[in-house]
Protein 1
Amino acid sequence: MVARFIKDDAVAALATAWARDYRLLAPVREGQAVVYRPWARDMHPFLGRPPTASAKQALLPQTENLLSYTYRKDHTDLTKTEVFLAEPVPPEPTVVLGCRPCDARGRKLLDRVFLERGVADPLYAAKRAATLFVTVACERLENTCFCHWTGGGPTSEEGSDVLLFAVAEGYAARAITPAGEKLLATLPEAPTPVSEELAARLAAPVEPGPAPDLRAAPERFLALFDDMDFWMDQSARCLSCGVCTYLCPTCSCFNITDEDRGLAGKRLRTWDTCMSALYTLEGSGHNPRVSRAMRLRNRVGHKFCYHPQEFPNAPENQPEVSCTGCGRCIKSCPVSVDIRRIVLDILEKGDK
Amino acid sequence: MAEDDRIARLIAAVKAELPNVDFVLGYGRGFDPLHATPITVRTEADADKLIFDATCVENLATSLYAMRGKRLGLVVKGCDSRSVVELLQEKLVDRENLVVFGMPCEGVIDLAKVRVRADIAQARGAEFTETEVRLLLPEGERVLPRQDVLADKCLRCRYPNPLVADRMIGPEVTPKGAEDTYADLEGFEKLSEQERFDFWKRQMNRCIRCYACRNACPLCVCKHVCLADSREPHWLSAEATLQEKWLFQVMHALHLAGRCTECGECQRSCPMGIPILLLKRKMNRELKEVFNYEAGVDPEAVPPLHTFQMEEEKIKDRGQLW
């Protein structure tokens, strides 16, 4: 098996080399958080823990400029105003370093939304084509991890261009795609002990334990749809904040706003969250999802019912859910809402 | 054993009140032994799931305003009870519709402090004694001095016993401190204005505008009609810039001045670990100095910024106004 070897102390040098050809996003520690930052000299990439927010931000930034506009008045005829539009700058080739297999798999689910629904989103498509994921394979499952429920795993290759495996004194790097191979081209082939260590690890992967059968989840979710006591009990603790959706590698909802500054302005696409009451607030003042119970129901339903219904797998297979089991929504939830618990309760109580 | 007895008494008290309330909000076990999670108790079987220990960090009073109109039972620690008192002071909750279960508290753990000392991502068990936190980790047992991982607010706690309770589940606890000296602010206040601003720029840069800080705040009752979300008038841009992030925190701190009881939920809830309680502590210190006032301790007191006097004792603005 071909693998390259990156010594621990060579990670920063490699990042520096990549940063010459790419915009490089690398995880660094800030307080207790691990955040992606554009590469700068003297940065210390931290690969030891999954970053606090997912790598989604590389493809769907929190703020994205859709266009800029300027109004110009015709001073000879004040009834006339001209509008000048400026398109956004095309994305730079980008490398995301240090995401996890669950993040990389998020790409596929974002593709579903932005590329595979009849109309491809040109901004997303451009970023998608320009972005490479250098993923760190996981050596263990944290208490909040459940990638194996969703078709992933600690060493899943799906969505990654390069997969790094922690070995003694560094990383064994495997190219998954030709673009990934290009990234690794300058590195020496891994010495024999490293290759053996990697082979041993791949032969005996982390055993994530049993996963529930999710095939009935869409149907049982719908059976419980109008059971507001069920949703009230699930959501009474929910604060309606945006932690779960903003940190999620697959949540794709956005808002579009025009930010006017006099005669100039920007049309922005920004992250939106279905946990907010404003998400469904209509112009009339009516809000079809007025309670937290309805909103939490939507988040769970979207991932485990509506998505599998829109992109169905063969009925004998596990459904494709729009969740990669990264567990960020559980780990960072201020009140420990556990989407696994909700799904298990749906499977149990929706069985009428 | 004493703790088990206390939980049994809490459960019995909750069961006794169940016929009088729509439901009780209390603590249940979360996804692992270091996390509690708020639970709704409607039935006796639900009540049997109640827990109370050093992991019960959430301030359940945060849900009170959103649930007004319901007849509610609420489990509170001493610090949480101050939020209830403040909400009563501001007439934001109806005392008649509220049954408070008071839990005198020896302090809760700050998981951020635990994480600095131990990798708890795979914690299998946790035990809390008077002096220790015993963690069961995959590599074996890890014992931390309890004092090292208690939340800062607990180390200086003056109100471990709930200030308002219909059913107090004792025994009462001796307060840790007599007066808050705000010693923790000293180092920060010594910095120059530029250094302080640079500090906040660094910290706020990683804010993701999830508004967990706002929504976790028991007194931030505007929630989704907050001016951070208002389009008309358009106070804040949707653009996630440092300026907008910082502006919101300043507004939050100012709106909480003289109301904040320093439960710390804003900071604890921040997924990015931004030390925003510092801003509130600073405001409260000023309020203490100017108005000799402390929020949420006296249900009859009027918060200083809810009223005015023609001549404030410590504000020398006469002559400058005219």
Protein 2
Amino acid sequence: MQTFHSIGTTADWIVMVVYFLAIMLFGSYFSRYTKNTSDFFFGGRRFSWWLITMSIVATGVGSHSFVKYSAKGFEHGISSTMTYLNDWFFIAFFMFGWLPIIVYSKVRSIPEYFEKRFSPSSRFLATILLLLYMIGYIGIGFLTLGKAVIPMLPEAFTLLGMTIPITLMGAIIVIAIITGIYITYGGQTAVIFTDLLQGFILLFAGLLLFFFGITYLGGFDVFWNLLPTEWKLPMADFNQPSSFNFVGIFWQDAIAGSIGFLFMNQGLIMRFMACKNVNEGRKAAAINILFVLPISAIVVGNAGWIGKAISITAPDVISPSVSPDQIFVVVANIIASPGMFGFIMAALTAALMSTVDTLINATAAIYINDVHRPIQHLLKKSIPPGAENDRKELIAARYASIVVTILGVLAVLAFKNFPTVYEAHGFFHSTLTPPLVVGIFLGVFWKRFTASAVITTFVGGVALMILGARFPGILISPFDHGIEMNVAHPYSYIRALYNTLVCSGVAVGAALTTRWQISLISKIRAKANAKIIMNIMLGVVVALFAAVLFGVSGISLQVIAAFGVIVLVPLTVTYFVHYDEEVNTFGLTASSISEARRQFKGSEPNDAEGVPVLVHWKLTESEESFMRFSNHEMSEMGANPGDLVYISDKRQWLGGLKSAHSVFGEPHDEVGIVYLTPDIIETGLLAEGRELRAEKEM
Amino acid sequence: MDLFSHSWLPFFYLYGLGGILFVAGITITLKAGSFDLKRSSHKKWMWILLFGFVWYITMHALMTWAALGLISPYTVLYTLLAMVAVFIFVTLRFKKIVGAR
């Protein structure tokens, strides 16, 4: 396979350095808006849908990178767009299930949801699984970044007379240091605004590349007619080859990937939580999936299609044997002029950094929320006053970012031997998402899904997944839809179907047998030696899971051990864990969102239709943090005292950067005036003399 | 050359199974009450959800026909642009209706 080094000119490197400096300056300008951990992680729940939509572009396009889709575009044609065009199926579940729950229940991380909905032990297991997922995702991001920059670097450089080779891991470590420095001093507001800028630049750079490519080939008709029919089709062949087939990728991406991305990607969830309200989050999701993703599919894959077309007309310019993961860089270098190539590469690498820094920020959020705070609580450490605690948590968050960055680099080792980044990502998604996806999904949409069922899903489901990974030819092959098993990387994609089915099966089975579990445990509780029996049972569970994990004996015994785990885990959980369906589902399932809204507001929501109003503000020194509008404006907004209100600078292009949430106070009679307290003015960054736009939230 | 396994078989699988999940999503959230068609803003969301499904099914069907040489790739582009125009027009109409109440 042909590989490249030292692509690009001095002009390209100058453009890249200038681009990076400009982006970092842009980000550091907005880091001044980070005042506490809420701002650091969630951007203060204030932004408009369009800002979040564009910010998601940089995260989504970066992670579903130019490198991997150009590679598949070069190998298989326009079907590389497949994974960008299959995310609509779960959108109703997201918009009207998960999104309102995470906003109204005020959870700050996915594991926190598991504690509220199920139990602290569920949260513990969810934290482990989620941290593995996030760190793996960061590893994939670093691997892609490394593969993107390697073709631009020389094979080695000389320092003090020593020749030092440039390796993939070496490049990744340097990139990780730069990324870590940026995220450590930025925070979520900086990330959102940097991503906003980069979202626009990315789309522009990708479409520019397509335009250059088409021009290079002699026009769109020439390009289109050069591609063979199979290369023009929008979906891959149903079940072949094993490295890229429709049905495997459907289960890996459209099912596990889509739910994983929408429901358990903490980075994306934090973006939606930064929206000013649930409806803005829905708009951001809808516009992103409907219109931005199809454009992104062209943006990220076209270098591969252009490369394929060039390899047909001029194989001496681009050989068909070019390493697929390098095709983006090779094509960009051929069709773009010096300097412009540097700009495209800067946009690509900066976008990848955006993805990685979003993930690092999100993982640090999980650490603070689900490891740091529970440990502080467990140690019964006295919590210092608000500002002091915030300062300490910010410091802890920054240290966590550094540790997560290091772990992300180490995670690259698990993926770097896959033929392409695409397959590494597919394998990773198929393997790590199913237990959490099933846990979240059933937790939100099935009230009868209990704590014992979710823990059994995590433990028993994972046991069966381990067996699937160890014996793919026996356990996964019945679900393979005719896909040939690649011995080196067996069932990279279709294993998602097996993993999802076993986790769902375990989950449903455990939930449907809840009454039997309770009845059996009641009988055990009645015995004098109940505690001894249950401790022995717990020991047996640990031993059986260890037998599966370490693969003792043959497949039959391992399968028996896995089923032993599935039977005994729900019993031990029923005994040791307190779970009350009424309490644990209140406001935390799709059927109780009205309760969640009531809890969020603290009283009955006011859904009367109203319109936003424009007002000027005056300062009031009232001790209570209310916003007081005139009777006239209250009536326009359809608001009553005690309702929730959102106020922002009238300039909508700020996207909510200068805005605040509060509660309506008692009305007055000065039309066009709102009285604000100093804390609201400070939180909302509201400037004197500026007109404000106010709207009732609920 | 038989391209069925590369064209319409994935198409039917995607929109058959995906369609079941999509309808299940709407049905479950409606039954749960979190998606409430009595609220005018939610009626707008129902339109957007249905449009999205039709948008993607049309996009994939047109792209498949274009790849098989049955229609021009420009027809795909113009049809999709026309759909975007319809989407914007209808969604803005919904916004006016909601705002007027």
Protein 3
Amino acid sequence: MNGLLKDYRKHKYLYYMIFPVVLYYFVFHYVPMYGALIAFKDFRIAEGFINSPWVGFKHFISFFDSYYFWRLLKNTLILNLYMLVFSFPAPIIFALLINEIVGSRFKRVVQTVTYLPHFISLIVVCGMITQFLARDGIMTDLLVWLGMDRQVLLAHPQYFRAIYVISDIWQGVGWGSIIYLAAIMGINPELYEASRMDGANRWRQIFHITLPGITPIIVILFILKIGNMLDVGFEKIILLYNPNTYVTADVISTFVYRKGLQSFEFSYATAIGVFQAVINFILLIAANRFSKQISENSLW
Amino acid sequence: MMSSLHTIRKSKGEHIFHGMNTLFMTAMIVITLYPFIYVVFSSVSDSRLLLAQTGILWAPLGFTLDAYTMVFKNPNIVSGYLNTLFIVGMGTILNLVMTSLGAYVLSRKGVAWTRHIMLWIILTMFFSGGLIPMYLLVNNWLHLGNTLFALIVPGLISTWNLIILRTSFAAIPESLIESARIDGAQDLTILLRVVIPLSLPVMAVMVLFYGVGHWNSWFGAMIYLRDRELFPLQLILREILIQNNTNYMAGNASAEDVEAVGESIKYATIIVATLPILFVYPFLQKYFVKGVMIGSIKE
């Protein structure tokens, strides 16, 4: 207690300055965590938090038994798989290619242009997607020219994942490459010179110097992605899906949204949210441990 | 084997690769830009010609600013713009204040508890209560529902941005801080007179990240706001673009007028909502790449 008082006197203003920050995190990040306890209750607004009865795991069991559980899990995992296989590597490859551009002015133009879509709002991007894929939209015209029947792709569940992933790459590949380019620039140039003297061509250099050099950041970002798996893509899916495509598009987060904020089944939706958080946490730990074993890189 | 003293001659394979790479990058530029170009062309085109045409547009079809006139006459667009400007302005200022305070304190060396607090903060990146508890907190327990502050307060600090700013503040030489202290400055003064002026590029990055984040956000508005007069621009946009709600856009115009400009209205709305971003982007672009790199490399 004495030490605290002495510290306070020495750093008085730091205490004042950090107070609003700590208050913010407490109210808007830790209180909701406590609020997640309503997953174990039959929460009713009228009765409030304290008076709503405890029901244990009832909502969890109800979710696991629900008609949609396997479909939601499957859709969430498959969408994630597509993202990890296509969306995740795209900025890495793009960064490697940008790094190979010879003219510095052209390089800057490419970067400036490709970063742009990241700053466009999701509503606008999905608006463009909806317009371009409409019955007479430009993208539909192009696909018809390539032999497809004229149809509204967004109305058919089998195309949803492709539309989602491709548009995600379009919007994110430029911006995503920044962090990898930063890492590439951090690689010691002497390594390249030394390899030149050993006769390595550019390909060899990429595989044996550049890639290993950025592997740490790749691993960290990959582990973080895995730790968010069950939350995949929720705002964009809400903007693009419709009841016709629920069968492939509906994921756990969108189901939580509908159950919680449209049907107002608060406890049920919160329980699913808790389920997501727990699984995400397990995946995070597992991915981190696995990565520690096969390489020296990990998040912690 | 080539001697390293000679100029290194590129092999034929490398030449082909560079050629293909240049082609690929050019294609990327086209693929990135063309959708915007198409939207711009369509927004000034005659709607009837648009509907009749298929395929790529090389130029606007006809030229008319009718779509834009209708967009600006729409009272929802105007109120949407005003609401968004308020949210971006007020929100970004509060974001900067909170994040700077946090970044400054947490970057001070020799203060034992800063590490502790940092850990608790980073923990929030991995755990959260979820959508529903947050909704109940903001709407029911804090009574922020149906106010613009529901869109600003829950997101006051982005932990990601806090980390970037903290790294940047920590890089400022301790000697400068010390000499300010010797001159009698307290921490707040040091933050305002020494640390921030030396961190302007990163602060520009913060303005960009938070500002664009506010400009583009819509989901909070969708779940917390009930009065149409409070809707930010993106939410109005959503009604027009995604839910195809161009009916009420009529305002004072007749039904035929609205139908005639129907298609190009959507495109004009996209441009009107995105123009500020497109304006600001080139100016701040040179700062943020540097800022992101500072944040990521030193971590």
Protein 4
Amino acid sequence: MSNSMIVLPIIFQFIAGTILLFFWQRSNIQKVLSILFSMIGLAIGIWLFLLVWENGIMVTQSGGWKAPFGISFVADTFGVTMVMLSSISGLAVSIFSAGSMRKERLDFGFFPIFHFLIMGLQGAFLTGDIFNLYVWFEVVIIASFVLLTLGGKKSQLEGAIKYVSLNLLASTLFLIAIGFIYGLTGSLNMADLAIKLDNVQNRGLVSVTSGIFLVAFGIKSAIFPMYFWLPASYHTPPPAVSAIFAGLLTKLGIYAMLRTFTLLFGGDEFMGDIMVVLAALTILSGGLGALLNQNMGKIFGYLIICHIGFLIAGLGMHNELAIMGTVFYLIHDIIVKTNLFLVSGLILKINGTQDIRELGGMYKNFPLLSLLMAIPLFSLVGIPPLSGFWAKIFLIQAGLETKDYVLIGFIVLGSFLTLWVIVRLWGEVFWKKGEHLPKKANGLYFSQMSKTDQWLMVFPIVLLSGISLYTGFGAENIIILSQRISSELMNPSDYIEAVLGLKTTNP
Amino acid sequence: MEILLIIIIGLLHAGGLYMLLRRSMFKMIIGLILLGNGANLLIFLLGKLVKGKPPVMEDGMKVFADIYADPLPQALVLTAIVIGFGLQSFAIILIKRVYNVLNTDDLDDLNSTDEEI
């Protein structure tokens, strides 16, 4: 078996999307096929993960062009873990949207675009070339534009204007930064860049380039001064779309940041300090924003921002323990954030509104569902032994090591704000008596749906909650995984040797 | 030649940013297009300009004897142009749609999803 199999997840999602295009406007066939494809995609993701776990970093050079001249695809532990997580989120969202999405949206190609989105994400996680990363970013954002505007409601269009314009700006900045890097080194292969950037004499220009990367990825991942598009747009599409955005799109920015700031600009202290400040402000503004809002989609949107802060904090502290905490948090966050928006979608279907002042009585009417929904909500807060707790422990430990006491304060404050938001949500939505729920004429409620559709909506939440519980209770396994990822990220020599073919046995 | 390109790139970026900061949606998209073109020219410039030296080897040669034009930036710019083209046409259609639905070109009127309640 050759190493070129590592591009299988990308090719598979491409074929899946293309096959689905042939069933235009036949949404029932598309539903079945999409769930099937997502399951196979997950199987491929797990297979690739196990393969890389056994064999170490795997590399393939597209077209047989030797690195650094061709485009390399690299499957290291971080990349394949992200591929696996995106497949899990993809499967959950695919099942959920088969149950909940309106027929009008499905008829206009929701599922094909969805698979192309997953393809873009997996391409970004597997590529080893910075310009190729840009191309995958564009694949992801064009798919996300379509998903965001699909349905064409007024609020969706308004949100899309903000989302589209800022993402285009971020892409342009990313492109400018790539131009600078190419001008400085004459290379685009990330492993090659890692060596060449160290030898560049003009350190000032390297720092400026890393700053442009920070801004470009910062807009994509919604960190402090660049996050305003997120709460303005993420609550406007149907919850299934928000779920995949929340789980994976902002995390793609974080992934790119983790890659560039460990491999290319590793150990730049100035950037580390800036990131620590940005992280603190991101946590604060996200948490306060979540407290201020009444719409559940918006609350979760601000919580995304708040927890992006934790991820940036780990990256800013930049030692092995901190990166490990970040990676653990990333694994936990992808699953939980996807689940949260699915939960909000289910609540919307049951009650017809997402305004927490109008909602109420969930616990009385649906005790079992409420207990299920408690799992992602409390995992998010990080009540021990649930998954959020472990990641924060490592981040705080790392902060003690690097003596970033103020940052630790902000992490604790962020956890406290999250707790406050979730407790308020729990009190308002689940415990309060539900009295004046507005009845919409045209909406299809959960109680009116068929049994199959109801199960299609509940099952993904059960699945993701199960994974969350495993992340919490089986934390020792996730810790081993994150340790391996962080040591690979912090000591990139293995990655560089594997890509440039200095050590590989089978090219 | 470099000086001329540098001035053009600077003008494109300055014009793009100025247009982005206007309140009109239409000007915003023009700003994004200008910025995109500026970025493309920047990549082209940073690949070191050489005149009349195509990256093609003469018969019987194994390595380049002389300095040659770098073909990679052209490939990059081409890719970036195509991608930018797709994204910009999407953005233009979106703006047209928004204009039809909301009947306004002023970005300040698009604040219903931002209200904090």
